[in-house]
Specification:
It is a single-pass membrane protein. By secondary structure, the chain is of the alpha/beta class. Helices cover 44% and strands 18% of the residues. It has five domains: 19-139, Glutaredoxin (3-Layer(aba) Sandwich), CATH 3.40.30; 155-268, Glutaredoxin (3-Layer(aba) Sandwich), CATH 3.40.30; 273-371, Glutaredoxin (3-Layer(aba) Sandwich); 384-505, Glutaredoxin (3-Layer(aba) Sandwich), CATH 3.40.30; 511-558. The protein contains 21 helices and 20 strands. The strands form four sheets. It has a five-stranded mixed sheet. Strands 6-8-7-9-10 form a five-stranded mixed sheet, sandwiched between helices. A five-stranded mixed sheet has the order 11-13-12-14-15.
């Protein structure tokens, strides 16, 4: 076997050297197993999977190179890149991405393979496809559209009229939001005067107010001086920036640059309901993200359409909203063509329909709030506290989300979560409070390797984690890794409930020793705090005994030589 592999490798190198090149140019990056996942993890990447032995690949190479060079500017303007993978040398990457023939052209967005390109492979058609997809998946597309829409309208004289940051306090805060809640929105920074990050942000925030003149009100609240206001907004760190409109608040969580804050403010104040066709729908159904779909009659459902526009603003960057007036799309979703618009949500491979009137704002808003989060969420910095560090056990899927091969394991985890939810609702669950989550191994590699003792090469893995007790359960009852199937996952949960699994500590030896010492020291201080008078008596008595011993020692030491102690 070893000899055969060595011969294959030598032949592959010889073939690559002998055949005309079909490899990457400076504009189309050559990717390997070492950098493929990291390169396609962000933005959009058009990837050519090829073999240097393939005649079609050799003929396509100059056309691909010319396209990549002519569209090289898309990487800067649209975060759209071109890349290539030599399947003769990087067979594992091609297998993971279901490459069955050469050349295979696939579009990746945020680490996921979205679609294969099967159109003509001449320069004009390839460039047209790449340009169109670059625009569709541009990270700032919606924000840019919002900027355009807001810039086109005339500035309102009563909205941020001077382009300055308004200082809000207990006397002006409520009145400002009530005035802007039904009309112009407010972007508000909750800060502390002593906060270094707030000081650094101050000049940028002042410039932002100028940029949003006549479009969005900009204000700030001194939290130490207005604790009640900041407590009501759940402010836990400084600075916290929120956009208030329609009586709700959306928190800004991106990098605090002038451009990103401006895009957020203008993006949230414009409707972000994307129209879809039947071809777009298939991707939403097959995916694992949460998508709201609004089906309507364009001529009849005007009030409901306005309501959905408003909901897309309220839940900006929290949920994705799509719409269609095409009856073919409705039939694909098995929605009967009855009177009135419909609102559906696709999540976790399931479809749920809103039951009620789409003109009743608070009922619609309440339903969206309840269903907008998946049963098996992706762990982020924002939700890690409730998914990882809350009481109970998290069944955690550790996945490299850039690999399509991970999708079946993720779906198996989702199906198991729904089965457990139904089973627990029947009163069958044990004492453990169990929840489910998915962790992107590329973003949480330190936690996975240090706390859960798992190497990236061993992924995908599913294990139970109890962060409060600092233990995890890495193996099934038979001592092996948990298989990534619904049956094996369900048995793993049953064994967990019955206490049949062996726990492992998240702490190493040094951490355990430090924790033990800290515990003893903390115990002493707790005792002193609980019984101060007894502690004072003990301290005085100890000091008295030490002083008495010291005096006796001194007296013994200074007695003249030859002196005999009396009986």
């Amino acid at each position: 076997m070893l000899l055969r592999n060595a011969i294959s490798a030598v032949l592959a190198i010889a073939v690559c050297a002998a055949l005309p090149l079909a490899s990457a140019s400076a504009a189309s990056h050559e990717l390997t197993s070492a950098d493929f996942a990291s390169n396609v993890a962000s933005g959009t990447t058009f990837v050519k999977f090829y073999s240097p032995q393939c005649g079609h690949c050799i003929r396509l190479a100059p056309t691909w190179e010319q396209m990549a060079e002519e569209l090289q500017g898309l990487e800067t303007s649209k975060d759209f890149k071109f890349a290539e993978v030599n399947c003769l040398m990087e067979g594992d990457i091609c297998d993971d991405n279901n490459v069955r023939g050469y050349p295979s052209l696939q579009l990746f967005h945020s680490g996921k393979s979205l679609e294969s390109y099967d159109g003509p492979r001449d320069l004009k058609d390839l460039k047209g496809y790449a340009t169109k997809r670059a625009e569709e998946y541009s990270p700032s597309r919606r924000a840019q559209e919002a900027v355009k829409q807001n810039s086109a309208r005339s500035p309102q004289p009563n909205v941020n009229p001077e382009g300055k940051v308004a200082v809000l306090d207990a006397m002006t805060y409520t009145a400002a939001l009530q005035g802007g809640g039904g009309g112009a929105p407010w972007l508000i920074e909750y800060y502390a005067p002593w906060c270094g990050h707030c000081k650094a942000l101050a000049p940028i925030y002042e410039e932002l107010a100028k940029e949003l003149k006549g479009l969005v009100n900009v204000g700030k609240v001194d939290c130490p001086a207005n604790e009640v206001i900041c407590r009501s907004q759940g402010v836990r760190g400084y600075p916290t920036i929120k956009l208030h409109q329609h009586g709700k608040a959306a928190e800004f969580t991106d990098r605090r640059s002038l451009e990103s804050m401006k895009n957020f403010a203008l993006g949230a104040t414009a409707p972000s309901v994307t129209r879809i066709e039947l071809g777009d729908l298939e991707g939403l159904i097959a995916g694992v993200e949460v998508s709201f779909i609004y089906l309507y009659d364009a001529a009849r459902d005007v009030a409901a359409s306005e309501m959905m526009d408003k909901q897309s603003q309220i839940f900006y960057q929290q949920a994705s909203f799509y719409s269609s007036a095409d009856p073919v799309v409705a039939r694909r979703l098995a929605v009967t063509e009855t009177a009135g618009p419909k609102l559906l949500v696709l999540k976790d491979g399931r479809q749920f329909e809103y039951q009620g009137s789409l003109t009743k704002r608070y009922e619609v808003e309440s339903w969206i709030e309840q269903v907008k989060d998946p049963l098996v969420p992706l762990v982020t910095g924002k939700n890690s506290a409730k998914t990882l560090h809350a009481p109970g056990i998290t069944i955690l899927g550790l996945f490299d989300l850039s690999k399509p091969a991970t999708l079946p394991a993720r779906k198996a985890l989702i199906e198991t979560a729904y089965k457990y939810k139904k089973w627990a609702a029947g009163g069958n669950a044990g004492s453990h409070k169990i929840r489910f989550a998915v962790m992107d191994a590329n973003k949480w590699s330190n936690y996975i390797s240090n706390a859960l003792r798992t190497e990236m090469l061993n992924l995908p893995v599913i294990m139970a984690v109890n962060s409060i007790e600092e233990v995890y359960y890495a193996k099934a009852a038979d001592g092996r890794r948990v298989e990534l199937t619904e049956e094996a996952l369900w048995q793993y949960i049953q064994d967990l409930e019955s206490g049949s699994l062996e726990e492992e500590s998240m702490l190493n030896y040094a951490q355990k020793v430090f924790r033990s010492i800290s515990g003893h020291v903390s115990g002493v201080f707790s005792t002193v705090a609980a019984h101060p008078y007894i502690a004072l008596i003990v301290v005085i008595s100890s000091v008295y005994l030490l002083v008495k011993k010291a005096i006796a020692y001194v007296n013994e030491d200074v007695r003249p030589a030859g002196t005999v102690k009396a009986d």
